[in-house]
Amino acid sequence: MAKKAVASLQSGEGRAYAKVIKMIKSPKTGAYIFQEQMIHNDKVQEHLAK
Q: Which candidate, 8, 12, 15, 45, has a CA 20 to 30 Å from the CA of 28?
């Protein structure tokens, strides 16, 4: 049986979003950090181009 949180992502609206994980170098320490965001599928390429 699926969890309710996972099942809610399978609705028509949930599939319109993608989880984007971007690796960014911290200017303060020089270490890499990971930034996670939920972004609409239409804007994924635009977000990654930044």
A: 45
